[in-house]
Amino acid sequence: MNKLTIYIALGSNYFNRLEYLRLAISLLARNSQITIKKLSSIYFNKAIDLDEENAFEFANAVCLIETYLSPMALFNYCQYIELNLGRKLKQNNLTLSRPIDLDLLIIEEIASLKILSSHNSKQIKLQIPHPRAFERDFVIFPLAEIINKTWKHPITGENIETLKQNFLKSSGQKPLIQRLKLELP
Fold first, then answer.
1. pLDDT, tens digit, 9 for 90 and up, residues 64-114
2. How far, in Å, CA of 61 to CA of 87, rounded?
3. Distance CA 131, CA 143 (A)
4. Measured between alpha carbons, how far is residue 185 from residues 1, 21, 112 in Å?
5. pTM of the predicted structure, to 2 decimals
6. Residue range(s) defining the domain that contains residue 53
7. Helix, strand, or coil (residue 72)
8. How many domains does the chain have?
């Protein structure tokens, strides 16, 4: 397997959100097949799309890694980290708060990728670029900090600044500004 350059979104809205982000980054870094190259600032946003009242705000970041793992092996390793840090899968079709959420966003060497579930050929297990990444300010803003400014979305051809401006225009939202910095392990 050739080396891949991959952007991963991290999010947590449990009690000690920053500690969960640190733990997830640490577990990624412990894998000998993964090298963390960059880490964005942490952005905070209201919990959305959760079936719980009074959920804590999310803390979100994006990291850039290099890996010799296949996209599916990395996806499985990210799910392993989520489960080890206490993530519960949907219960009764409810989306719950999560100690950690890891999403593969972009693979620089692969323009697009779709892997279907082995249980249901109509259900997508992994899709690159992540289908909702550019609809979410808590992904766009941290990603814009660390992605190469010449990168272009493989489907729309837009660069990250254009995607950011389009999001702000269409959503009417102000950019996220609450930021903290974590150190790389």
1. 999 999 999 999 999 999 989 987 765 555 456 678 989 999 888 887 777
2. 18
3. 15
4. 25, 12, 30
5. 0.87
6. 4-180
7. helix
8. 1
